[in-house]
């Protein structure tokens, strides 16, 4: 298909040309679903679950006879806000809402899909009690809702799922329940390990603290209150409340007293126990039998979203037709209605639920946006087979070089001053010289750091930056690790993907030098001539995440203990970055 033919075909179906669509792989564009229907909205439609509990859903369907595929958007954020008639909002807008993530409802309904958005148990007008995020109950209800949709007279019998973040994360769980009429899923910005969301690198994230207050629950049921006797529960609450990081944070003390479901349960489970295993879709994907398109965008500060993409692609137990994509812009910063989601999802679901050969399964399995050049390309595997794994060593005077330190150089000091006594935030930086030629870095990045502490525990925050002339800084990725959680899972870890167990935290012996393997989110960036790669190591990162005004609590909880670090980078402690360098101009896709 020529470019001119493609433009005519897209005009016929009233679609723009997304920058990531390549003409040589597109088929039957003129047969993509056209916007030919008006929309009927039915509010608070009753759906009965297997145990007799009735949920309420909003149903958006074409105002026409016939049967149409269904799309389920499921989360605990409340159905009513998902159809608010507002345009996409930038992150600094006062009406930006990170919970409006169900997708562009009218876009799909006008093209012959039925959109169903329920309130989960205990929310809105739905009966029952909300059991917290991604409970077994939520997973089973997802199965039942899919089957309810398929049984409706307006449904063709094929159902998919839509939405990002929570709406994406629940999709793997529901698919693993194997509802007979689920045809395909499209998890977007969807982590597959809730422990990694709640405790990034073992460090508590105040994630559910903020999100839970925006969940319209009328009745909740803490799983911890079911798991433990009143005496054991009280003992666990008291033990958590006595820890210094919690005891000196009145917000957390207050939440422990209120026992709000999600964050209360999170606080009571600081290690990777069975509580989190029930909420880990990564271990359930072997039960999925439908096609999976897993996608994200480059997110510098949050590894779980992107790691799930590569886990899906590389997991042999997920033996279904599957695709992956990393798009170029952070979708959470323009809600509702991210265009990457709807255009690619239309092509995906037209293929699997309407029988249109869109060419989407003829493409190489991975679509990748390369930052720096700002271009899309296709790849066949991850990490890339042509990767040249390169060590960049931490050196004196803040240098980052391919050669290790040959001497007994003294360590670099770093001091963490807790937020209860200071707003000062210290860091140590290491930088390459300015690039003399373009250098592509595509893949996972790891910091192997040798360090000593004067306390039994501490937090490491490592950031990678592209620094241009004039010190213009572009964030690439961030890794987080709690020192006591340094133990690796030998079976699951690779040199480019260290996986900590997070099961049995081991306090640090003060003064002892340990190696800490800190994994970063994967990146794809071409450093241009004049740019430098900079590694920044710090101890806290509470408010630097580019989220909206109410989310300044996002980020790892800073320690409340004054701590002195020594960062070693001598001939016996070769601290280094492992960087995936890709030869410029090598064949790909």
Automatic annotation (TrEMBL):
User: Domain of life here?
Assistant: Bacteria
The record's GO molecular-function terms, alphabetically, read: dipeptidyl-peptidase activity
- Keywords, A to Z? Hydrolase
Ranges of residues in domain Xaa-Pro dipeptidyl-peptidase C-terminal: 346-578
Q: Where does this protein have coiled-coil stretches?
A: none
Q: Short name of one Pfam family for this protein?
A: Peptidase_S15
Query: Phosphoprotein: is it a keyword of this entry?
Result: no
Q: Where are the transmembrane segments?
A: none
Q: Does the keyword NADP apply?
A: no
Instruction: Return the protein name.
Output: Xaa-Pro dipeptidyl-peptidase C-terminal domain-containing protein
Q: Write down the species.
A: Immundisolibacter cernigliae
